[in-house]
Amino acid sequence: MVLVNDAGKSLTDCLVNGELSPFVRADDRALAFGDGLWERVAVVNGTPWWWQDHMNRLRRGCELLGLTAPSQSVLLREIQTVTAGRRQAIVKLILSRGAGSVAYLPGSDQEQTRVITAYPWPEERVRKAQLGVAARVCKTRIAVQPLLGGINHLNRLEMVLAAREMADHEEQEGLLLDANDHLISAIDSNLVLVFGDQMLTPRMDRSGVRGVLRGRIIREFKARTELRRITVDMIAEASEVFLCDVVRGIVPVLSVDGLELSPGPVTAEMQTWLEESRNRP
Amino acid sequence: MVLVNDAGKSLTDCLVNGELSPFVRADDRALAFGDGLWERVAVVNGTPWWWQDHMNRLRRGCELLGLTAPSQSVLLREIQTVTAGRRQAIVKLILSRGAGSVAYLPGSDQEQTRVITAYPWPEERVRKAQLGVAARVCKTRIAVQPLLGGINHLNRLEMVLAAREMADHEEQEGLLLDANDHLISAIDSNLVLVFGDQMLTPRMDRSGVRGVLRGRIIREFKARTELRRITVDMIAEASEVFLCDVVRGIVPVLSVDGLELSPGPVTAEMQTWLEESRNRP
Fold it and tell me: What are the tens digits of pLDDT across the range B233-269?
């Protein structure tokens, strides 16, 4: 029996069901069907940012898929274990329905699999993003699926196809339309259009992922934020456009499909707000 | 380091990249994104049924996802290895883009992962299916996604949700509608409606999996088979309805949502044809 299938690449700092291990069973349902959820968490000195928001999204996903939300204290302890010795890290948490059943219908005795992995903080990528990015609208469309809209599940082939499409272009960011010509998000961050001091962000009830930072902005700036169906032509009318995600924070969009945009006061205000709320104890 | 995460369940007869192993890396992209393809193959005395059809579908999937189709001779040898000593078995073949990249964009040096697992032949389930099944139309809808339509990819949460929905009902089979009210298939088999001696089967260009047995029927009975958009009300007008897949073969549908149907001469003809073509050398 060979236990290391790909010895050339290392995978340290990975806990599988609490045990230090770089392996999962080959019949895990995450592998077979994408039957599970994930969270990407920014961790500083062992403490995850916006922990409760991640846990709320995970719990909502568990409800929709019929999974059991893992114990928060167990997750927190495991995150501290994998990030020990690092000031800042990204932790990827995968929750799968588990191994051992080959049919679509899960077994009644499924034991869930949880995989917690630490990755280096992408300092340079985060720093660059603050200066802004060029974007284009991807040809790859996101399917409309209200049963899975908003949650962070493991069926992400569309995002992989979009990322592959973007590799052929100069722009760093791809914006995604759904099948109804509504803008949903960028490939791994959410989208906000600014009109004066109002912020519009796409509804996530039919596809896309409800990002944690997006959720924070919606709650913090309730009176100024609106969830809307957003079309491409609204970009030309917007005074500012930015992206947001828990790793890079607020990312100004400098252009979309060659149309130039200038980051303005609301984007700057959000960057300042984020900086301050991160530094608050 | 713990190498067995779930020692209670055994997973034998599994080859990962040609090595006897029940494990894949925890950062495999099949686990993270469902970034890959699969085939479910019926194997008798070490020989896969309809091998070329499986390989054609796999190759088509590889083209759409940008994967490299594995060597057929390697796969055949591995199938013989995992089924050694069994007269009849199901082999599940998973082809993943591989381990080691955490972003949606695959690394330029991805080494694909192939998992080949043998499962017991479900004798009893196959025998029962010949007698017919009761079906109902699922509430779970399949999203429309032309980029992935027809191929057998690993993003199968919709099927899992549909199977979970069916667990609450008496009927054995769930029929799936897409978002446009078109019938696509059953949960793990294809659907054929019979009108006189004509057979209609749903188009698979926007969702669903192009089943290998369905493909055989279309080619073998070209003049009598039509690919169509099919709606639920057409079931009431059909003279017969059957399902087909490579494990259970031709499965008569005895009722849909309580509407009784009777298996007729075309279903019987297909069962006989299948029996004969399987026994042909």
Answer: 999 999 999 999 999 999 999 999 999 999 999 999 9
Q: Is residue A212 part of a domain?
A: yes
Judged by CB atoms within 8 Å, which residues 144-203 of A form the interface with B?
Answer: 144-145, 147-148, 153-164, 166-167, 179, 187-188
Domain interval for residue A114? 14-121
Residues B160, B234: one domain? yes
> Considering its fold, how many domains does chain A have in total?
2
Same domain, B71 and B138: no
Q: Is residue A123 within 8 angstroms of chain B, CB to CB?
A: no
Q: What pLDDT does B279 receive? A: 77
Domain boundary among B84, B105, B121: B121
Rounded Cα–Cα distance for residues A113 and A36 (Å): 9
Chain-chain contact of A34 with B38 (C-beta, under 8 angstroms): no
Sort out which chain A residues have CB atoms less than 8 A from B2's CB and list them: 16, 19-21
**Yes or no, beta carbons of B33 and A154 under 8 Å apart:** yes
Which ipTM did the prediction report? 0.94
Same domain, A139 and A218: yes
Q: Are residues A108 and A231 in the same domain?
A: no
Which tens digits make up the pLDDT trace of A84-120? 999 999 999 999 999 988 899 999 889 999 999 999 9
CATH number of the domain that residue B271 is part of: 3.20.10.10
| pLDDT for the residue numbered B10 | 56
Residues A114 and A22 in one domain: yes
Q: Which residue has the tokens 């099949």?
A: B30
Distance from CA of A160 to the nearest CA of B (A): 5
Q: Tell me, what DSSP letter sits at residue B3?
A: S
Last residue of a domain, one of B121, B146, B162: B121
Per the domain annotation, does B3 fall within a domain? no
Question: Within this chain, do residues B264 and B132 fall inside the same structural domain, yes or no?
Answer: yes
The pTM of this model reads 0.95
Report the residue of chain A nearest B100, measured CA to CA: A9
**What angle, 0 to 180 degrees and rounded to 10, lies between the N-to-C axes of helices A212-220 and A265-279?**
100
Does residue B72 form part of some domain? yes
Q: What is the mean pLDDT of each run of 10 residues along chain A (281 residues)?
A: 39 90 96 98 94 98 97 97 95 96 91 97 95 98 96 98 97 96 98 98 96 98 98 98 98 98 96 90 57
Q: Which residues of A172-189 are buried (b: 16+ CB within 10 A; e: fewer)?
A: bbbbbbbbeebbbbbbbb
Mark out the alpha helices in chain A (DSSP H runs): 29-33, 51-65, 72-83, 123-130, 157-166, 212-220, 233-237, 265-279
Chain A from 58 to 117: CB within 8 A of any B CB? 65-66, 90, 92, 94, 96-100, 102-106, 111, 113, 115, 117
Q: In a mutagenesis test of the B interface, which of A6, A20, A116 is the best target, namely the one with the most B β-carbons within 10 Å?
A: A6
**Chain A residues within an 8 Å CB radius of B100:** 6, 9, 11
For A160-221, give the secondary structure using H, E and C. HHHHHHHCCCCCCEEEEEECCCCEEEECCCEEEEEECCEEEEECCCCCCECCHHHHHHHHHC
**Residue B114 shares a structural domain with residue B147:** no
Could you tell me if residue B2 is inside a domain? no
Smallest CA–CA distance, residue A180 to chain B, in Å, is: 11
